Every structure is written in C-alpha cells, then in structure tokens.
C-alpha cells in the first residue's frame, strides 16, 4: 500500500504540472521601480537568494552558483550564451544552452525576404559547461561536437576588449565569425521573481563583427556587421512567458540597436533591460507598451510609450513581420513553445531635444512560453 502511495504522488504531481498549470502569455507591466547598482559583490547569498535587484552598466556582481542547493543548481538553474550578428541582408544567432537536465545547441538564420532556418540539437542528461561570469576574465571555450553539428566559440580578453571567435557547421549552413567589443556600454539585469528565483543577464550590442557565412551554396562575406550577446543565468518560475525583441543596423551613418521585452511576472521590477543604443551609448527606455497578437504572428507589432513623439524619452517602434516559425519541445513536464518572427523595424525617438529615426532595420521577435 505504501508503495502505491509513493508511486501515485509523483504521477499526480506530473499530471498537475502538465495539465493544470497554465501560462499567461502577455507582458505584465510591473510598477516596482528599479535602481542602478554600483557596489561590487556576490549575486546571491548563502541561501541562494538574490542580494540586490536592479541594473548596472558595468560588471559589478559575481555569479556564485555554488550557493545554490544541489537540486536547484543541477535541475532548476538555466544558463545560456546567445551570440548573434546581422547585416542589412541576414541575421544569424547561435545559442549554447544548459537547462540542467539537458543541454542544447540552437541556431537561427534568416535571409531578407526568405524563410527562417532554425534547428536545435537536444542533449538529454548532459550539462554543457558555460562560463560562470558574464565577462571574459581570462580565456574560455564552449564546444558542441556531434555527428550532425559542429559548433564552438573561443573567448579571450586583449587590451580590455573581449573577442569571441565562433564556428558553426550544419547541413546547408557554415559560419565563421569574430565578435569584438567596442567602447560601448552594456546593460546588466539583476531581477528577482520570488525568493530563490532570479534572473541575471548581460545584454550587449554593437560589437564589431566580421566573418563568412555560406548558406545553401550562397556566400555572405562581411567586415562591418553589428553583433552582440545575450548572456543569461537564472532560476525561473516553472511556467514562464517572455517577449524579446532585438535589432541592429545603420541609418544615415548612425548605428542603432535595441533590446526590448518583458515577462508575465507581476512581482518583478520594471523592465530595466529595455534599451536603445545610438552609436555605442545606451538610452534606457521606460513605460513601454507592447501591442501584439500571439495568435497571429503575421500581424505588425507596435511598441511605444506615447501617442506622439514630442518630448524627451518618447519613442514609437513598428515591427513588420516577414517570416515566422513555431518550434515546440514536448517532454511531458517540459513543454516549450518557441515562436520566432523575423522582419524589419522602424522607429522615432527624441532625446535632448533631438529627433532620431530609422527604418528598414532587420531584427527578431521571440515569444517563448515554457514549462521548464
């Protein structure tokens, strides 16, 4: 009888996770203000709780995962290094991901006016070794070699600049590239969802990028692309939704890049990683609202904090969808719906009395709904 009780409990719990937990697939707009963090120290305390939440423009908090419990560190901690770059003709991203109970390599390639080419390799019960810190302090190497994939990147720090050399080979796609930081600012996010659940990330854009991409026999060689990295480490709520938008490009000899998005967590601070880069300088954006239809990925998406761009800080952004793809990973208690949309952005923005505008810049939108 006791054996049946021990057996029924995990079965009931799995059924509860699978069928009774629903995910609210809309961005929630928290009202808790954020703060700029300048004091150096550890990210989490001895109990695995985030010590301080807010944002910083430099590396001030050391990630110390050894303070997490064994279960959390090995099964609940999510980690990724997402490298991406683009020209006015294509977008390429490679993600090295460690979910705890599995690892994966994901990549996305999109040529303007074409379809999205996305694939991923799932490695069950494998923990991909990623760096603990968001910056390169010495050297690093991340590698995934499989009979179907060959992907890696090496990192080194020279004269206070980070250089990452990446390679990817998969049927129909080969890429070799170099990403190098400039003197741009970065944005570091330290966000708590509830006690013991947090997100630590570094969003960096406008890296100098050069390299070569061969896709189905067509060659793209580039020497002045814009690249970046989304470095993320966190312990998330089991049911999570987020919207992420990113784009980079040139308009009238000015480099524009942005990182936008939000989640469905009501008790988090405001979205401190909503930023616009103009020639390597970060402009934090506030009070943004997202107008999108998750059931119609072909519909344009609008982001703004005003009806008309009139005063400093006002911004309006429009995204025109050109291609979309839904990818689903269904492993019973792990159920991830990954929606990607590629297209072009245009925007108007005012800062210090000056109007900025750009159009026809390639970018990506991701809507991710995950039970993980």
Order of helices and strands: HEEEHEEEEEEEEEEEEEEEEEEEE
How many beta-strand runs? 23
Unreliable spans are none
Structural class determined from secondary elements: mainly beta
Radius of gyration: 20 Å
Question: Main β-sheet, in a few words?
Answer: 12 strands, antiparallel
- Sheet-strand content, in percent, reads over 45%
Helix content: under 10%
Give the rounded overall mean pLDDT. Answer: 91
Distance between the termini: 32 Å
Q: What best-fitting shape do the alpha-carbon axes yield? A: globular
Figure out the total of helices.
2
Structure, described:
β8 and β9 form a beta hairpin. The chain has helices at residues 2-19, 70-76, and strands at 41-42, 54-56, 61-62, 77-86, 90-98, 102-111, 116-124, 139-145, 150-158, 161-170, 173-180, 187-194, 197-215, 218-235, 239-251, 254-263, 275-278, 281-284, 289-291, 301-304, 315-331, 334-351, 354-371. By secondary structure, the protein is mainly β. The mean pLDDT is 91. Helix content is 7%, strand content 58%. The strands form 3 sheets. Strands 2, 4, 5, 6, 7, 8, 9, 10, 11, 12, 13 and 14 form a 12-stranded antiparallel beta sheet that branches. A 9-stranded antiparallel beta sheet has the order 18-17-16-15-23-22-21-20-19, with no helix packed on it. It contains 2 helices and 23 strands.
Which tags fit this structure?
7% helix, globular, nine-stranded antiparallel sheet, 372 residues, mainly beta, 23 strands, twelve-stranded antiparallel sheet
């Amino acid at each position: 009888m006791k054996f049946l009780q021990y057996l029924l409990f995990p079965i009931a719990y799995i059924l509860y996770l699978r069928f009774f937990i629903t995910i609210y697939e809309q961005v929630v707009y928290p009202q808790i203000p954020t703060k700029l963090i300048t004091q150096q120290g550890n990210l989490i305390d001895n109990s695995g709780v985030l010590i301080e939440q807010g944002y910083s423009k430099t590396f001030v908090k050391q990630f110390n995962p050894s303070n997490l419990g064994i279960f959390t560190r090995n099964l609940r901690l999510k980690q990724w290094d997402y490298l991406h770059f683009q020209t006015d003709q294509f977008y390429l991203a490679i993600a090295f991901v460690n979910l705890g109970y599995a690892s994966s390599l994901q990549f996305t390639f999109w040529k303007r006016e074409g379809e999205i080419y996305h694939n991923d390799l799932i490695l069950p019960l494998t923990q991909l070794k990623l760096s603990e810190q968001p910056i390169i302090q010495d050297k690093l190497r991340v590698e995934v070699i499989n009979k179907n994939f060959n992907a890696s990147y090496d990192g080194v720090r020279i004269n206070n600049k980070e250089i990452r050399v990446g390679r990817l080979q998969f049927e129909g796609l080969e890429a070799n590239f170099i990403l190098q930081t400039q003197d741009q600012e970065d944005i570091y996010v330290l966000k708590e969802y509830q006690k013991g659940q947090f997100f630590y990330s570094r969003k960096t854009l406008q890296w100098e990028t050069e390299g070569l991409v061969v896709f189905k026999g067509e060659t793209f060689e580039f020497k002045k692309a814009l690249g970046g990295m989304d470095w993320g480490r966190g312990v998330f709520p089991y049911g999570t939704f987020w919207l992420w938008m990113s784009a980079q490009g040139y308009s009238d000899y000015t480099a524009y890049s942005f990182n936008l998005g939000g989640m469905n967590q009501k008790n988090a601070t405001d979205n401190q990683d909503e930023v616009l880069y103009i020639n390597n300088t970060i402009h934090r954006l506030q009070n943004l609202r997202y107008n999108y239809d998750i059931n119609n990925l072909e519909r344009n998406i609008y982001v703004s904090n005003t009806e008309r761009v009139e005063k400093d800080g006002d911004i309006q952004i429009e995204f025109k969808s050109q291609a979309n793809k839904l990818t689903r990973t269904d492993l019973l208690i792990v159920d991830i719906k990954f929606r990607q949309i590629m297209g072009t952005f245009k925007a108007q923005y005012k800062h210090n009395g000056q109007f900025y505008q750009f159009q026809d810049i390639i970018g990506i939108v991701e809507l991710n709904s995950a039970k993980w």
